[in-house]
Amino acid sequence: MIAGLILxxxxxxRMGQDKALLTYGGRTFLEIIVATLHEAGMERVVVVLGxxxxxxxxxxxxxxxxIVINRDYARGQTSSLQAxxxxxxxxxxxxxxxxxxxxxxxxxxxxRALVASFRRSGAPVVIPTFQNQRGHPVLIGRALFDExxxxxxxxxxxxxxxxxxxxxxFVEVGDEGILIDVDNPDVYRRWCEA
Length: 194
Known about the structure:
With 194 residues, this protein is α/β, with parallel strands linked by helices. It has helices at residues 29-39, 53-59, 77-88, 108-121, 145-150, 158-163, 185-193, and strands spanning 2-8, 23-24, 27-28, 45-49, 66-69, 95-100, 125-130, 133-134, 138-141, 169-172. The chain has a single domain (2-193), classed as Spore Coat Polysaccharide Biosynthesis Protein SpsA, Chain A, CATH 3.90.550.10. The protein contains seven helices and ten strands. β2 and β3 (27-28) form a beta hairpin. The longest helix has 14 residues, at 108-121.
């Protein structure tokens, strides 16, 4: 089984409001990503919340997703990734598609392409590219879970991904959404006006 894992626990300090609750096309970022993962065929979808977790749960419809609360969210994104991986521990878990809440404009086709590449290659990491630029989400195979769960909280997950760069698969997709990181009000305004 391959699961979807959405990190949405941060304080969104650059944005000035919770990114999970920002809307695009009438739905919140979090609802969009959960729906995309379901559309792509993910059997399990886990959402890691932290900052303002109760307000977000009260404001967002997360049907079909499991919620994990990361009480250590202030210690950074690695703590949220580790909380999500621990929640997903099961014998049949092969990989996770790791999504960040500030990358809501990805397509189900992109997720399916990552999964297909993983199934063919068994690569420990599968990364989408658009016009040769790397983006998100990233598929991470079970082979890397122990390393990720053992990381110090000051170390980013990209350290492990870089370590396994030579074994990674890169999948070119026709989805500019993989590059769109909505992490400040100017970027958000631009995309809302587009």
